[in-house]
Design goal:
Blueprint: H1 9-22, H2 34-55, H3 58-62, H4 66-84, H5 87-112, H6 134-137, H7 139-161, H8 167-183, H9 194-202, H10 206-221, E1 247-252, E2 256-261, E3 267-269, E4 273-276, H11 294-301, E5 305-310, H12 322-341, E6 346-351, H13 353-368, E7 373-379, H14 397-410, E8 412-413, H15 415-424, H16 427-440, H17 449-455, E9 460-461, H18 462-474, E10 484-485, E11 488-489, E12 499-504, H19 512-519, E13 526-531, E14 550-552, H20 560-566, E15 568-570, H21 575-585, E16 589-591
Parallel strand pairs: 4-5, 4-6, 6-7, 7-12, 12-13
Antiparallel strand pairs: 1-2, 2-5, 3-16, 8-9, 10-11, 13-14, 14-15
Helix pairs in contact: 2-10, 4-8, 5-7, 7-8, 10-16, 12-13, 12-18, 14-18
Protein name: Polyhydroxyalkanoate synthase
Pfam families: Abhydrolase_1, PhaC_N
Domain Poly-beta-hydroxybutyrate polymerase N-terminal: 126-298
Length: 615
């Protein structure tokens, strides 16, 4: 290898030029191992050919998400047509973009001449894509970064300011543009990312070979559709080091296993407690490990805790509808709790769509007089979908018909489809950061319990999912008193039981305003509580090591901003505050109960068998 002292003049000049933008004076970057680089490049091209061949197979082509692509093209096309319809506004918008780039070129030229210049565009404080110092110190990469930010924000302004576009189309356009701009970020590509260039040169391209191997594995795992791994799945096993709170399965039917957890206190509250998790993912988000387990914490406070574990449905469950999930899920669980404990009344909590189902059950019980649920806790739950989150972009008539047609082929919606939809809500964090880490840096993701749970997808039965999309997201029939189940019209205003309604400030699935407005639909007293963070971290915030606080206030009325302005902030977890609320409903205690009592024999230890079914 040639030493820096004996380099040819032009090579030395090139290195000096690079050093002026990237490295301290007098330091030159090391030369890569050319032989290794060539060898790895050959292996990379060979593996790339194998991947391309696999993607062109009929099986892969049959699963291609053409519907989503067509929808994105159509939606963004409507935005473009809106601007082209007014040549003057279009010209003004183009002039703004041109002026921004002229300013950027001027500041870049000043920097190349060694003069200081303020940036034209800077990343958002929480945007970690451009954290490497060379994005700012090297004028070349700084120009690429700022150019991307300018173009992205200009495109966002076009969507926001488009005229003659309905609200739903606006929302879809913002969503699809976010997918596009996230994908096109220069941080995602080797030639335009200084960190990736350094990393590849340091490894002489071996990272690309490892990355493409992982890419091939993920493509195969997805049956021709890329399933980006987010964690090391070998690091976890349900029942071994995740979902380990002791208990027994005391009841099972076609839809649920009911787990009763073993007590850890001498006495327990007399009224038992039922947790209704969402069926769109596994229940153990509430039991990741002993330190973060909401279920274990409730047991330790002296609650007799039962938790539904939903089946991972297949074609046999195609006709299981929303009413089935209510009757064979919540109602069947309450029946079993009565057998196990002798109690006819329960506290109940529902998380996300599990809370929506719980609200439906409350309305049904109010209509029929079978009022066994005496208090309800709703965790990041929507009952009024007027201000629903980003998932609403998938819920118009045309897209729902496409989903229904796809479900009709198998009787269910594949778990990967729902997982992809959730990942698309935060594409930079949940998709592209892993693409870069796995496939370009060639680094396998670390073992992380939350992401293991996130990747443990479940399927949706056709009848249930269709009802949910149409009645909640599309028609908002529950909030409007028009939902009908079992020939019974449901009215949330008839629900008089106390309700603890938890929202989180940064929730993109059940926005805080949606939960706030939903609180107004109930007929009884609602305690609206606003926690910090988002849909998961805001809920799973244990008192042992709380990361976020929460806000409490008075009655739910007026606008959310006014409620927040008057609310009291409390540092720490909302869990103790909630338990005080639960205990106040029915403080009587009895000796601790063993799982199943004397009436229901154990069907196996927790976490049961349904939760182990993979999609």
């Amino acid at each position: 290898m040639t030493s820096p002292r004996t380099q040819a003049p032009d090579q030395a000049a090139a290195r000096t030029s690079l050093a002026n933008g990237a490295l301290p004076d007098g330091i030159t970057p090391p030369m890569p191992d050319i032989e290794a680089l060539s060898r790895n490049a050959g292996q990379f091209v060979e593996a790339l050919g194998r991947s391309a061949a696999r993607m062109l197979t009929p099986e892969a082509q049959a699963g291609a998400p053409s519907g989503e692509i067509n929808e994105a093209v159509k939606t963004l096309g409507q935005i473009a047509e809106s601007w082209l319809a007014d040549p003057n506004r279009s010209a003004e918008a183009q002039a703004k973009l041109s002026q921004a780039f002229l300013t950027l070129w001027g500041t870049t030229y000043m920097r190349l001449q060694g003069q200081p210049a303020d940036p034209v565009a800077v990343p958002e404080p929480r945007d970690g894509r451009f954290s490497d110092s060379e994005w700012s110190t090297n004028p070349y990469f700084d120009f690429i970064k700022q150019g991307y930010l300018i173009a992205t924000r200009w495109a966002e302004s076009l969507v926001d300011e488009a005229q003659g576009i309905d609200e739903h189309t606006h929302h879809k356009a913002q969503f699809y543009l976010r997918q596009l701009t996230s994908m096109l970020s220069p941080s995602n590509f080797l030639p335009t990312n200084p960190e990736l260039i350094r990393h590849t040169l340091q490894e002489s391209g071996a990272n690309l070979v490892r990355g493409l191997k992982m890419y091939e594995e993920d493509l195969a795992a997805g049956g021709g559709q890329l399933r980006v791994r987010q964690t090391d799945p070998s690091g976890f096993e349900v029942g071994r080091n995740i979902a380990v709170t002791p208990g027994e399965v005391v009841f099972r039917n076609d839809l649920i296993e009911l787990i009763q957890y073993a007590p850890t206190t001498e006495t327990v509250l007399k009224r038992p407690f039922l947790m209704v998790p969402p069926w769109i993912n596994k229940f153990y988000i509430l039991d990741l490990n002993p330190q973060k387990s909401f279920l274990k914490w409730m047991v330790d406070q002296g609650l007799t805790v039962f938790c539904i574990s939903w089946v991972n449905p297949d074609a046999r469950h195609a006709d299981k509808d929303f009413e089935s999930y209510m009757r064979e899920g919540i109602e069947a669980a309450i029946d079993a709790i009565g057998v196990a404990t002798g109690e006819t009344e329960v506290h109940a909590a529902g998380y996300c769509v599990g809370g929506t189902l719980l609200a439906v059950t409350l309305a049904m019980q109010a209509a029929t007089g079978n009022r066994r649920i005496k208090s309800a806790t709703l965790l990041t739950t929507q009952v009024d979908f007027t201000h629903a989150g980003d998932l609403k972009v998938f819920a118009d008539e045309e897209q729902i018909r496409q989903v229904e047609a796809r479900m009709a082929e198998r009787g269910y919606l594949e778990g990967s489809r729902m997982a992809n939809a959730f990942n698309m809500l935060r594409p930079n964090d949940m998709i592209w950061s892993y693409v870069v880490n796995n496939y370009i840096k060639g680094k396998p993701p670390s073992a992380f319990d939350l992401l293991y749970w996130n990747s443990d997808a479940t399927r949706m039965p056709a009848a249930n999912h269709s009802f949910y999309l149409r009645n909640c997201y599309l028609e908002n029939s529950l909030a409007q008193g028009r939902m009908v189940l079992g020939n019974v019209r449901l009215d949330l205003k008839k629900v008089q039981v106390p309700i603890f309604n938890l929202a989180t400030r940064e929730d993109h699935i059940a926005p805080a305003i949606s939960v706030f407005e939903g609180s107004k639909t109930f007929g009884g007293k609602v305690d609206y509580v606003l926690a910090g963070s988002g849909h998961i971290a805001g809920v799973v915030n244990p008192p042992y090591k709380p990361k976020y606080g929460y806000w409490t206030g008075g009655p739910v009325k007026g606008e959310l901003k006014d409620w927040i302005a008057a609310a009291a902030e409390t540092k720490g977890s909302w869990w103790p505050y909630w338990f005080q609320w639960i205990e106040a409903q029915a403080p009587e205690r009895v000796p601790a109960r063993k799982p199943g009592g004397d009436a229901l024999p154990s069907l196996g230890p927790a976490p049961g068998t349904y939760v182990r079914m993979r999609a």
